[in-house]
Amino acid sequence: MTPEFVVGLAQEAIKVTILVAMPMLGLALIVGLAVSVFMATTQIHEMTLTFVPKILAVLLGLLFFLNWMLQQLISFTHNLITQIPIYIR
Predict the structure, then answer these.
(1) What is the 3-state secondary structure (H, E, C) of 7-31?
(2) Which of 49, 65, 68, 82 has minimal Cβ neighbours within 10 Å of its Cβ?
(3) What is the spatial distance between Cα 61 and Cα 39, in angstroms, rounded to a whole number?
(4) Nearest-5° angle of CA 20, CA 23, CA 25?
(5) 83 near 8, Cβ under 8 Å?
(6) Model confidence, pTM
(7) Which residue segment(s) compose the domain that 36 sits in?
(8) How far is it, in rounded angstroms, from Cα 55 to Cα 50?
(9) DSSP tag of 83
(10) Range 55-60, long-range pairs (CB < 8 A, 24+ positions)
């Protein structure tokens, strides 16, 4: 294994990790921004109001994106396992 190969494999792993995490983080960001604007306009400063909508949005997003996320992770793992003989050389 060359250092370039290890760096390439690490880059691919990081890319898959970011790709899988992006929908949940994006939903939390959008809902958090909407709740913050709502809190600023109504001058409500309740801290639990920020967490509950984010948690619900992430859970709903997880239900919606779970199949795609698992497919991405399975594809990456399958490629990694099938190329083990190449990695050994």
Answers:
(1) HHHHHHHHHHHHHHHHHHHHHHHHH
(2) 82
(3) 23
(4) 100
(5) no
(6) 0.79
(7) 3-88
(8) 9
(9) T
(10) 57/27, 57/28, 57/30, 57/31, 58/24, 58/27, 58/28, 60/27
Contact predicate 61/24, CB 8 Å: yes
Picking from 63, 59, 76, 60, the residue whose alpha carbon sits closest to that of residue 19 is: 76
Residues 6+ apart with CB under 8 A from 9: 80
**Residue 64: partners with Cβ closer than 8 Å, 6 or more residues away:** none
Local confidence pLDDT in tens for the 89 residues of the chain: 788 888 999 999 999 999 999 999 999 999 999 999 999 899 888 888 889 999 999 999 999 999 999 999 999 999 999 988 888 87
The encoded tokens of residue 35 equal 């709740």
